[in-house]
Amino acid sequence: MEPEKFQDLFRRLETEVGKVIVGHDDVIRKVLIAFFAGGHVLLEGVPGLGKTLLVKSLSRVLGMSFKRIQFTPDLMPSDIVGTQVLAESGGGREFQFKQGPIFAHVVLADEINRATPKTQSAVLEAMEEKQVTVFGESYALESPFMVLATQNPIELEGTYPLPEAQLDRFFFKLLVAPPSPPELHEILKRTTGAVSSEVSKVLSDDGGRQIGEMQQLLRQVLIAPPIEDYVVRLIHATQPDANNGNPVESPVKQYLRFGSSPRGAQSIILGAKGNALADGRVHVSYEDVEKVLYAALRHRIILNFQAEAESVTADQILAEVVKRVARG
Amino acid sequence: MQAPLDQNTQQGPEQLVGRLRAQLRRQALWDSLLLFAPPLLAAFYIAGYLYRVAWIGPLTFFLLAAICAAAGLLAAALRYRPLAPSAAKAARLVDERAGAADRFLTLATLEAARSSAPLITRLRLEAGEFVKRVDPRRDFPYRIKKSFYTSLTGSFLGALLFYLLLPVADSAFYSAPAPQRLRELAGKLAGRPRLSEIARDLQALAVELEDPRVAREEKQNLVEEMQKKVAEQQKKEEQKEDRDLLGQAASTLKSLERQSGAGQEQQENQAKGGGGIQSSLPQQGQGEGKPSPGGSGDQQGDLSAQLKKEMQQGKTAQGDSKEQGNEKNQQRQGEGKGNQPDPNKPGAEKEKSFAGKSQGGADDRGGRGKTPEEIPQGGPPAERFYRAGEQGREGIKGARYVTVQLPEDAAANAQSDKSGMKNAKGSQVGSKVSASNVPLPAHGPDAPAEKQPMPLEYRGIIR
């Protein structure tokens, strides 16, 4: 696929999703980048901000299958991945695998932190392996496969916060902010009037192939070694234990328990490549890296008690890291 | 006819980066050379100066110059290495100047073999559009850095300081004897054909100065004559090197003259002071090592006689009133002596020797600090001229025991003076409890018993 075609499709997807989602342009863009990079996204925001609508719209414009799983404390892993059921077939009975809702291109794991860790881990295993195993038999998931999980940051009673190891499997963590007054006006116009906006499919019937080509092109985007080195230094700078030439030693040591994993660097590079392609470029620039840095690392750095006590956020730490690490 | 294409449009993005990099490397090289050139030149100047004034020989000069040059080049090379820009740095500069969003950086640093060829081609085409925006000569002209000016100023000041302070340091630290210095200078001057005559004269002067048979005045005259000769020759000389050498000779002669003058002055002082006055100034050259006559034992007696005579003159001039004024004290002192005999009182011989010592001490003090003219002739004799036991204005000379009057007693005395009360002896009322360090008399049968007051708290117990 040509880079121009990628850019054209990407813009059309953005525009189409933007028809129903007011504002959140950055969130839409990053969700699409994560999709073409083959990653999963954790959306965090208070209820009613359009998280579910965003995911639904995305699946529609992509022409992909979409399933929604509402996570509750009594949700079982088999409710997600599926189970073996005894079924009549040809005069006999045999176990047949009944697929769960995880078998879709786009899966919305709504309020993922409300399910028990056992159920969460079932989803997260599927995210990583792109397959599920039931009664010793493995079943491959759809391709492309993307999980968009949401979680509510305020209602924490009766929730099971995701462990750090599972958080690390999300490509991006996006913060869905409340709309501004003009955006709210626009939302009201679109949702309370007689005419409701509908999204249309952007990709052709052979969307799976198109998406595959786009994903392949994204990985071919050129990145200069100094920029790659910059990403490495950024990741290294988030390590509180690394004391050899860490330029942001003091805030990192003060507020972080753990730094980013190598997955963070992978996410940054792929996200930057997606951002470059979306901008019509075939090479990664330093700006691309810095644009996706926060989404890629904010859930991968673990704050300590002091940071919690002083209400220091991960984004603040990352801003300090970006400020102190020089470009190559 | 087609117009020739601009140089930048003919070349690709990589060539532009290469050109800029080469230009920046040249600039870095110039920066390094300019930074170390002034100190190097200053070092050459210093070495040349040292060679010119014949402090170092030609071999040392060339060796020093070679070491300086090598050190300068090494420093410039070490400085150049971090300043020389890499391809990535040059590419980033082009990106910043052209607003190319790291296209040149990517092209300059990318491993083409591991990257997608179509994308590289596309990137090269994109970057080509930005090439026209950058002209290395126009956008990155060479500017002399501030470090060069700092280095230049520092080096100039260093050389200037060296030029100004070297003669001072030379005279301060070069402590060879004067004749030897003159000989060395003569050796240097002998190398110059036009100064050979002066050199011979300096040699001759050095010989004269070392000759003990030549009188001091004569030596002084010789030095002065030589000084004049050198000054005249210095005026005639046109070459700077010769003038410098003559200047050194002149300064050496001047220092000789000073030393000689000091020696002469000291001699005059000794002559005036009859040998009792000895200069505390360091004596060098001709005046060096002359023993002061005041220090010899033979002449001490003469001096003592002279001082005694002066003292008597002073006493006579002092008048009767002074003697009367001292009479009271002398009388009291006499009474004190009579009342309190000193069991440890030394004999007459001892006293005599003590007086002699005292006189000698006074003599020494006078010899160090004052010239004979400063000794007052008509006034009262100084305390140091008193013999032991004699009453002076300040008290008894050589007294070993004193009796003091306590303040309350002095107040009582004053009161009694006012009321006109006097005791039967006609003397002032003495202190009730006199404080004295006079030893107590030997314990006799009629000596008053020493009373020990009993503490109050024990009185009841003992009763």
In short:
Chain A has helices at residues 3-20, 25-37, 51-62, 77-81, 117-129, 164-167, 181-192, 207-220, 225-237, 249-255, 262-278, 286-297, 305-309, 314-324, and strands at residues 41-44, 66-70, 82-89, 92-99, 106-110, 131-134, 137-140, 146-151, 172-175, 256-258, 302-303. Chain A has 328 residues and is an alpha/beta fold. The two termini of chain A are 31 Å apart.
CATH topology assignment of the largest domain in chain A? Rossmann fold
| Rg estimate of chain A, integer Å | 21 Å
> What is the ordering of alpha helices and beta strands of chain B?
HHHHHHHHHHHHHHHEHEH
Give me the secondary-structure category of chain A. alpha/beta
What is the string of SSEs of chain A from the N terminus onward? HHEHEHEEEHEEEHEHHHHEHHEHH
Describe the structure.
The complex is a heterodimer of chains A (328) and B (463). Chain A has helices at residues 3-20, 25-37, 51-62, 77-81, 117-129, 164-167, 181-192, 207-220, 225-237, 249-255, 262-278, 286-297, 305-309, 314-324, and strands at residues 41-44, 66-70, 82-89, 92-99, 106-110, 131-134, 137-140, 146-151, 172-175, 256-258, 302-303. Chain A folds into 2 domains: 3-177 and 207-212, P-loop containing nucleotide triphosphate hydrolases (Rossmann fold); 222-324, Helicase, Ruva Protein, domain 3. Chain A is built from 14 helices and 11 strands. By secondary structure, chain A is α/β, with parallel strands linked by helices. Chain A is 48% helix and 16% strand. Among the domains of chain B are: 9-153, no CATH class; 176-270. Chain B is flat, with a radius of gyration of 47 Å. A two-stranded antiparallel ribbon of chain B has the order 1-2. Chain B starts with 6 loop residues before the first helix and ends with a helix. With 463 residues, chain B is mainly alpha-helical. The interface between A and B is medium-sized, with 18 and 18 residues.
